[in-house]
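Task card 7
Instruction: Convert sequence to structure tokens.
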Amino acid sequence: MTEPLPAREAPADPALRRAALLFAATLAAVAAGPFVLDAYTVNILIRALLYAVVALTVDVLWGYTGILTFGQSAFFGIGAYAAGLAFTHLGFSPGVAVLALVGGIAAAGLVGALVGWLAFGYGVTPIYVSVITLVLPIVVTQLLFSGGTFTGSSSGLSGFDTLDISIEAWFWLAGGACATLTFLAWIALRSDAGRLLVAIRENEGRCQYLGIDTARLKIGLMALSAAVAAVAGYLYAGFTDVIAPELAGFVFGTQIVIWVALGGRGTLIGPVVGAVVIEVVSAYLSGELPYVWNLVIGAVFVLVIVAAPGGAAAMVRRLWIWTGRGRARAGPGPAIEVVPAAGGGPLPDEALALEDVSRRFGSLAVLQGVSFRVRPGELLSLVGPNGAGKTTLMRCIADGTERSGGGVRIGGHAVGRGPPAECVAYGLGRKFQTANVFDGLTVAESLRVARARRETPSLWRRSATLRLPAAAARVVAATGLDERLADEVVHLSHGLKQALELAMVLALEPRVVLLDEPTAGLTKPERTLIGTILTDLVASERLCVVLVEHDLDFVRQISSRIIVLHQGRVALDGSVAEVVGSELVRSIYAGEPQALAEA
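Output:
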């Protein structure tokens, strides 16, 4: 095992320095605002800044994590009504104010967690969360309407006692909260932990096969975003001493999404600026153009979606790059530190076992009674003609929900009907037929995401080193990925993407590795390199490798055992010499002359 390299100090981060300077300048502008702006504008800006806080939560969910939500208005309304109901029916006091704040946060967080639990189950399509969050504001609004005099029904509540502070203090509170939250969100989202959210947006399926519980992450994020929106609603009620069901309504929820889209989702500052600018301009123009103004906003929204989906922030970024000022070369990337394998006790005699595995699609049986066992240190190749069920079998091994019947054991652990993350926890890693990677992340970020299950990533910083087990580090070094750590994955060649996915799988420190046509589309030298790496890893790390491959010459060179699948059944299980010289194999491949010639 290579000795771990000493960790190095993180270099100075110019982006963090610029962000800190911008944050300080924003706080200075907020401090000076009440002295240079008229009272009417200050009043409007306080509401706009509180709306911007809610827009920020939508951007974190939609722009960074890929969760399109229309329900943040409901959580804003919950916070506002927590304050309004408490101050109206209990009277105002410091104790009641704290109780209302805590109650609003708790209620919004619980509802947000419930929405996440309903929307983020394994196998649920992304559109489902949008449907649920479309319904949520309608349900909350109807509950407020049916509350009678307690909630004020359609008229809402007004005139209650609230925090007795000046309008200048309200401006400083709203502006400071918005600026601070934006700065903290920027730090968190560019940290190693924040990259997990972007990875979910880019390729949630790959995250699940890296052992990441994406559902739990998204539920927690939804609950946190709901709590933040509730705090903004609480402050809104405290400032205006007026609340109405429209604050929790569908129209307001849709407006927030429009602000984020126009400002530029996935940028944080774009949605904040979009919410503030649109709200201020609306306050000045909506009175003179009550109907035309909404039409203008709608038309601009449609135009942005069609012509500039990234919003105003994306257009500014493109202009900045076009002028030449935004062109920055990627750095050399982090240093690689080889770490000892975590280990998991002594290796079992049986790494992988299948017993009578079947898969049916209605009346069509794709797999029937597939049973075999694989030992540690064995490289088993699954071969067979197209349609034999090889890839389907790989899915049944790596995902308990795919099987129609039978059992699978990984390292002696029986795999039930759990999702891929459960199989990964037992020591399984899967590489797909087509490179399944994160195009929007860098090579180093992708490998850190793969290590998230082993090493909890930081929420506040980027690590200066990339910690990898020896097997993954060898793939990275042998394929030249160590020179491309700072490059975005989208710019890699097909061969390097295949190598990156293999390195990501090995970063999990699996005991069983499933490889579905790892040499597809590779050149002969690349195939030779992958074959050498696999055979060495099987020998040195005692990995159990199950390989699906059509290149029988490649299979002959690296396999210790071959299983032939035909029509969803095991047709032959034996050594390389037994399978290659079998007349049964020749007859199975009779319709494929090239494969027959190789055999």
